[in-house]
TrEMBL record:
Domain of life the protein comes from: Bacteria
Stated name of the protein: Uncharacterized protein
Length: 202
């Protein structure tokens, strides 16, 4: 049975090689994220200089490092390449998009939503970017963004169900555990892996 997959970054069909693999990274590589990047690459990544960090990964891979380190570098490199595809809305554009619905919205309110973790963001090459669907996420908190259009009826029902489930689990926060046996399934969650800030959740 042939397995066909599509890489989200370029839309090309992959019909060769092991399941969950592409030219640059394969599913098994994500098992080695606990190895961590070399300090010089990690500093670039944490500072948001992803273009430079990816270039440093390429230079390291050309040196044929130890297999587990190479796997970690390939996985982290892929995540860094994917991050800008999801965090694609600049700060100025995000504020402008909110003001289309809520003209009185201020930059201070935007910063407050960032500080209260109502908007997910990343620094990418020195500039703050937010998720491309950040407006939909904000509608989950109508009391905090009263100037935005209400969520659709379906969206409200889904939100209420989600909040009810979260409350039943001792509050509106939680953690999840990911074990090695689950890693192959994570290859179907590449967008999520790409945007996690510091590796797999714990």
């Amino acid at each position: 049975m042939a397995v066909i997959d599509v890489l989200p970054s370029d839309g090309k069909v992959i019909d060769e090689g092991p399941v969950g693999c592409s030219v640059d990274v394969c599913c098994d590589d994500f098992r080695h994220l606990d190895i961590e990047l070399p300090p010089e690459i990690l500093r670039l990544k944490d500072a948001g200089y992803l273009t430079r960090a990816v270039a440093a990964c390429d230079r390291l891979l050309e040196q044929n490092p130890e297999p587990s380190l190479a796997a970690c570098v390939r996985a982290e490199r892929y995540r860094m390449l994917e991050t800008p595809l999801h965090f694609s809305v600049s700060r100025d554009l995000a504020i402008a998009m909110i003001r289309e619905e809520w003209p009185e919205f201020t930059e201070e309110q935007f910063d407050d939503l960032i500080n209260r973790k109502r908007i997910d963001w990343r620094f990418i090459d020195g500039e703050l970017f937010v998720l491309d669907n950040f407006l939909d996420s904000l509608r989950v908190y109508p009391r905090e963004v009263p100037g935005l259009r209400p969520d659709s009826t379906d969206g409200i029902a889904l939100r209420n169900q989600m909040l009810k489930e979260m409350e039943s689990q001792n509050g509106l926060s939680g953690t999840s555990d990911v074990f090695p046996d689950h890693v192959p399934a994570l290859c179907r969650m590449v967008p999520l892996l790409a945007i996690l800030p510091n590796g797999l959740p714990s």
